[in-house]
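Example record used in the benchmark description.
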Amino acid sequence: MENDLAINLARIQFAFTVSFHFLFPAFTIGIASYLAVLEGLWLKTDNGVYANLYRYWLKIFSIVFAMGVVSGIVMSYQFGTNWSVFSDKAGPVIGPLMAYEVLTAFFLEAGFLGVMLFGINKVGRKLHFVATLAVAIGTFISAFWILSVNSWMQTPVGFAINDVGQYVPAAGWWDIVWNPSFPYRLVHTVLAAYLTTAFAVGAVGAWHLLKDKTNPGARKMFSMAMWMAAIVAPTQIFMGDLHGLNTLEHQPAKVMAMEGHYESHPDGAPLILFGIPNSKEKRIDYAIEIPNASSLILKHDMNAPLAGLDTIPDEDEPPVGIVFWAFRIMVGLGFAMLGIGMWSLLARSRKKLYDWPLLHRAAVVMGPSGFIAVLAGWVTTEVGRQPFTIYGLLRTSESAAPLDAPAVAASLLAFVVVYFIVFGAGIVYIFKLAAKTPEAHEPTPDDAPIRTAGITPAAAVLEGDHEEGAAT
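Model output (structure tokens):
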């Protein structure tokens, strides 16, 4: 009993820390690419508005990046403390993949981050753009390796079990890295990061448009964000459907929990829109459903049979209530994002993109939607995998180290207090930066290092861009 409590506390601790951490890379991936686009447009057009927006969001990026690095370090230690059995058994597979992330993505980001943050007035424009592009590529590479690890835990292939019970590569790394769910999860997660950034940027732009609809920086960032929402939101819904079909093939119990299908449906399964999962009675209470629609979505045939959780042993069922509602939050927000994107296209077609306050207020309200959606998606993915850490092979209850419940509870409490103080302060500071009106003369950091000898500065060019930005 005490061991079960300790394991549950360890799970809560990891869920808490990874939830905080996941918010920052989701924003970092998108905002790094956004900065690369801004600087690329500045190089192409010489429009100072792009340069000023670059500086505006660069300050926010630096804070988010730092908080992402710090919050990620803590998770690594938990693998060796709370989940040492999992680390021992799965280490020969996941260890090298995580090492590749450090050797490629982290080194690339670390090598160019200083130039990106402090070199805007110290090096040539093209060289600085290369640094920005390198950091953006590094964030994608980081996502590549981490999602490969996670996907292998969801759909494990290409392994053998050695004499001491460890999972080891069977032949080569190709099957492990490109496991069945990885391509779908990679695209789905990266698109989610872009949408998260688009709606955060769009909310900031809309906030400033409500105060001054003539501000060139606010107009530009809102327009770019709405283009991203209009293009990426429908793409994400399409890719989400493909990802769901892949999950049905490889993790059917997860899809059963997402759909709330406690019972099998031999003649077509309904799409349950809302209801209250009742795991004790194995049913959805007060269900609002569309007949046969789930079979149409998942099998592309209204009368196709769909198996339910009655075909899964009780001890192998995921927690239906959490997965059921997390999935609906994610999907609901996805369609809300689509609605905002289509609304912005209507406003743009009528040349009213900057003149509809109701659209701007809706965009402000939708500002945190991407962060909520990625958390809901993470909960759907990870809780839907339970009761396994390596799906179908290694149970969560068998993955934990010998734990003492009071010790885990104390460390969990410490994490909660420290995280809310440290990261809460960082988030408040980000809000303060975002609340500042984007101006034509965004300052560079006061503590930028002096120019290295032999590097051509871009200060004179930037001053010209400042003047152009003020006139734009």
